[in-house]
């Protein structure tokens, strides 16, 4: 390469000249740039003679970012969004369940019989793959179709940067970068997207903290689990009139706990594995813009709802097949699923969970979305319920939340199980897509392992603590 | 002259990293006549301009830092096919963070035929800081003066002709949300790409400090001699004097040499998509 000696020469000259021009060069450059920009802008812009007396943007900002009202408003908005989601999703969810589970599924079974499918083929296809998919659709589609557009409207309006602004102070106190608030907010949609969003953070140290803690932002795949468990167990523990509100508050409580954990773990990391000072940054608060309702509906339905649903469906089909197989393939008189469930039951009991839930979390590593269907199916199997569903490994039809509750009660569920499932849903390893994204972004096996195992161990610790406490206090 | 069709059939979530491998399928560089980069500060409506140009419906959010990777789309104008690359929104190109690095490396090594700088008309001064940095790297730029409706709402009047004269590049006022000025923007992109309009961008003036000027001149001369055909030798010299490690690396590993010889700039840019964390 003839360019190489020339390259070395250039670098040498540059090095010498750099010493000559001194340290002030950078400031000099930036100053020249700013001066030019200011002059050019000044010549082009004519400002109004008197500033407007009332600035609506500023008035709203004062309220939503105020020290007193900032956090209450945040919690109120979130609770409102979840309340509407929980209230609104019930009816369409049941309609979808009736259609997909009570009408289409028997029709498919009949079709299989008419075509004289062997039992295992009809089992794998209709009781495994189809039912898993139908479950995911009927459980997830209605809440997502309500939640995403509302969340997107808030985003479009310009509220999210204000959330970041409110959280900024707490992040810097935790030794993390204020922009982590942005990647965390992104994580409330999808953790993999949140991990990629950490690219806006300059310092590698603070970026790693943001990547490792992103998992504590409850993602799309986990909202439906939280909403459902909260509706069935928490909501039903209070008078019917308050059920919706209390369930919504329980979900918000988990989300807020996730934010608190983000601070706590960031603080821990910045004092142990990733030591350093928080860097300063400036966050621009964009103007409020009237949301474009129709376009928002379109993009949030297409971009988010359909895509997230599609991912869940594609993941649920192989998972449904896997569940059917482990439930129907026997080793020594017991199905593989039963072996797994009984094997993990002891450890599950310690955590206030059970073997079924732990097996479900193993099956659901590719997609958290399928936790609830898997849990229900395995519970029926493990509890040996009769009269519900259609036998081993069949994701049966369930008419209402009451039925689900009956099944889970028969599986030995208590309020502790429900609470700890919600906690474990928040605090466990990221899904496989997120783990892969973390590896792609960090290119480090070590940090990928930390990001995967740290939340899992923390989840074990937290659920072990709550279970032990609840038992010691005689609550269960 | 009309925008005949939206070329791209990419999924709406092409920005999503999970789909990056899918996104690249079918994007055959041979098929494009011109590559247009879209740069700008965060939250200036860059993604909205992107959507308006491509007919795509990428999700746009009202908050800074939404686009962290590159999004790609395309359009046909006249008989030319344009590939449009939406860069991450940044405040500067000094490459302090990964997103700034991605944006700068694309403008520098990707050598787009036109770089459209989307500028927030209500915050012109701060936005010009980035625009001026882009103009240091490339001649072929068009300023898209967006959010003109909000400027009006705030009572600001902006003399876009004056701005164009001062910056030395075309300035097109737009309201991308409503599609206003997009036709004009596309026409101007076409004119700059085909060379019908030749911008002569403003460069940050030589300083009062003679020793500084001599240093810049000497280094610029040496770079020009070593890499003839490099369009921005002075900018490279400034970066080296500022101690920019990435530019030093680009000189050492020959990627800057590739630019001056005009070999495969795109493949270099594609390699740069992989974000690094130096940890």
How would you describe this protein?
The complex is a heterodimer of chains A (476) and B (279). By secondary structure, chain A is mainly alpha-helical. Chain A has one domain (70-278, 287-472). Chain A has helices spanning 3-21, 25-44, 56-64, 70-114, 119-157, 160-173, 180-187, 191-197, 204-213, 223-234, 240-271, 293-328, 336-350, 355-363, 371-383, 401-410, 415-426, 432-442, 445-472, and strands at residues 45-46, 330-331, 334-335. Chain A has a two-stranded antiparallel ribbon. Chain A is globular and about 85 Å long. Chain A starts with a helix and ends with a helix. Residues 386-397 of chain A have low confidence and may be disordered. With 279 residues, chain B is of the alpha/beta class. Chain B folds into two domains: 3-194, 3-Layer(aba) Sandwich (Rossmann fold); 210-271, no CATH class. Chain B contains twelve helices and eight strands. Chain B has helices spanning 20-24, 46-54, 98-109, 124-137, 148-153, 160-167, 182-194, 210-226, 233-241, 245-252, 255-261, 265-271; strands at residues 3-6, 34-40, 71-77, 80-86, 114-120, 141-146, 157-158, 171-173. Chain B has a seven-stranded mixed sheet, with helices on both faces. At the A-B interface, helix 1, helix 2, strand 1, helix 5 and helix 6 of A face helix 3, helix 4, strand 7, helix 6 and helix 8 of B.
Furnish the topology, listing elements before pairings.
The complex is a heterodimer of chains A (476) and B (279).
Chain A: H1 3-21, H2 25-44, E1 45-46, H3 56-64, H4 70-114, H5 119-157, H6 160-173, H7 180-187, H8 191-197, H9 204-213, H10 223-234, H11 240-271, H12 293-328, E2 330-331, E3 334-335, H13 336-350, H14 355-363, H15 371-383, H16 401-410, H17 415-426, H18 432-442, H19 445-472
Antiparallel strand pairs in A: 2-3
Chain B: E1 3-6, H1 20-24, E2 34-40, H2 46-54, E3 71-77, E4 80-86, H3 98-109, E5 114-120, H4 124-137, E6 141-146, H5 148-153, E7 157-158, H6 160-167, E8 171-173, H7 182-194, H8 210-226, H9 233-241, H10 245-252, H11 255-261, H12 265-271
Helix pairs in contact in B: 8-9
